[in-house]
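User: Second chain of the day. Same drill as before.
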Amino acid sequence: MSTPPTPDAEEIRHALRQVMDPEVGMNIVDLGLIYRIDCAPGELYIEMTMTTPACPLSDMILDNIDAVLDPLLPPEVNIRVELVWDPPWSPAMMEEGARAHFGWNG
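Assistant: Same format as last time:
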């Protein structure tokens, strides 16, 4: 029995749209929190940030990432999510529709 292939970065990005930042009520992809997705055989690496280093819900967001990705990936795939703070997040990193939703056009 062959192992299903690891989804590519766009499939992972699409799945991550299910993960909401509950403080702002928007998904982490549209908010611009996902900086990098690398898919390799047996490994998935995600580099992301939070809207602030003091985000009180970061553990919950990371748990939700696992909950969304675990059923999508074969069990032998190692998921590594790294929180980074450089570059710092700003509203300019949001997708255009997300900025418009909040009235931030700049």
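Helices lie at 9-16, 58-69, 96-102.

User: Great, on to the next one.
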